[in-house]
């Protein structure tokens, strides 16, 4: 029969796994109670620490293993008023730069003669949707013809067509979602538009 002392030793020898932790803003905090949440947090934390330990060469090796570095990111945006999903995709650098130039307004300041640079945010949002919304495509002629027939008009530009279907808030929301799949960490497109001033 095991003595009380033996039992105590055996219990103390048992490894107790610490609660799953996750990194947030440089500090650790406890993860959720569910097994799935715990597993995800543990994996994410291990991945982050692994990447920190590995050198830039290993990161480069991982990048070189990607088959298509220019592959577009796809997603969807739910239209709450119509209860349908719009299919969207990321915008490549070449198109993005052209959009930026098309929406840049330069004004010469009186007195100093310096140029003031501004971005036409409303126009930019429309161009984001025009280039990043795949279904419906506001460039597709068949789509335009059907929507014009429904609206009872003969002619509509691409951006006028977008405005005829979407409310202003919906334009902002859809543009923000397209910017997100393009790689911007934004909640509202105004944040991305503001960042363009530093690039122009």
Descriptive overview:
It is a single chain. The protein is an alpha+beta fold. The chain has two domains: 15-64, no CATH class; 74-196, rbstp2171. The chain has helices spanning 4-13, 35-53, 56-64, 93-102, 121-132, 141-151, 158-165, 168-182, 189-196, and strands at residues 21-24, 27-30, 74-79, 84-89, 104-108, 115-119, 133-135. A hairpin with a 4-residue loop joins β3 (74-79) and β4. The longest helix is centred in the N-terminal third of the chain and has 19 residues, at 35-53. It is globular. Residues 3-33 have low confidence and may be disordered.
Strand-residue fraction?
15-25%
Distance between the termini: 81 Å
Alpha-beta classification: alpha+beta
* Helical residues, percent: 40-55%
Number of strands: 7
CATH class of the largest domain: Alpha Beta
- CATH topology name of the largest domain, in short, is rbstp2171
Q: Return Rg in Å.
A: 26 Å
What is the 3D shape? globular
If strands are numbered along the chain, what order do they take across the biggest sheet? 3-4-7
Q: In the residues, how many domains can be counted?
A: 2
| Average predicted confidence as pLDDT | 74
Count the DSSP helices: 9
Give the topology, please.
Blueprint: H1 4-13, E1 21-24, E2 27-30, H2 35-53, H3 56-64, E3 74-79, E4 84-89, H4 93-102, E5 104-108, E6 115-119, H5 121-132, E7 133-135, H6 141-151, H7 158-165, H8 168-182, H9 189-196
Antiparallel strand pairs: 1-2, 3-4, 4-7, 5-6
Helix pairs in contact: 4-5, 5-7, 5-8
